[in-house]
Amino acid sequence: MYKIEVHEKFKTYEYCVVATEMGHRCGYVKTEECDIAYKKHYDDLHSNITCHGGLTYSDNTNFGGSEGHWIGFDCAHAGDSPDPELLTEDNKPSSDYLSAFRGGTVRSKYFCVKWCKSIIQDIITMNRLDGCLRVGSKGGAL
After folding, report:
1. Do 36 and 75 form a contact (C-beta atoms < 8 A)?
2. Rounded distance, CA 80 to CA 69, Å?
3. For a FRET experiment, which of 8, 24, 26, 86 has its CA 20 to 30 Å from that of 95?
4. Three-state secondary structure along the chain?
5. How far is the C-alpha of 45 from the C-alpha of 35, rounded, in Å?
6. How confident is the model at residue 134 (pLDDT cuts 50, 70, 90)?
């Protein structure tokens, strides 16, 4: 299971920061049909979208009651570490699992928000380069 720590909008794009039961955070950005990244596999976006550890997710899902196509990244790479504040006795990973991340850095929700916003900027750039204009929430193009 997971817990949504942040669910906000930036430049008309929804994004979420999720805390996993293993103590790591992940960041996700919702794409729309008018976006170049819409329904593309994350492997097809690596050359255009930069984020912590690279994109590791793309699928139709529901985050925070918002159904759609989301792309994202995780903070469970070498050099990362689970956040002890996210772990409880009920969901504490094994000592073997935790030792694999010893010496890593806990990635905060603010760290993930920064990378979600970076992904959004990259999507906007991709759209502009392709001549695709996404209409902003106030009716104007971005």
Report:
1. no
2. 26
3. 26
4. CEEEEEEEEECCEEEEEEEECCCCEEEEEEECCCCCCCCCCHHHCCCCCCCCCCCCEEEEEEECCEEEEEEEEECCCCCEECCHHHCCCCCCCCHHHHHCCCCCEECCHHHHHHHHHHHHHHHHHHHHHCCCCCECCCCCEC
5. 12
6. low
Domain extents for the chain? 2-129
Cα–Cα distance measured from residue 126 to residue 128, given in angstroms and rounded to the nearest whole number: 6
Are 55 and 40 within 8 A, CB to CB?
Answer: no
The per-residue pLDDT for range 22-64, each reduced to its tens digit, is 999 999 999 999 899 999 999 999 899 999 999 999 999 998 8
Distance of alpha carbon 15 from alpha carbon 8, whole angstroms: 6
- Block residue for tokens 């529901």: 62
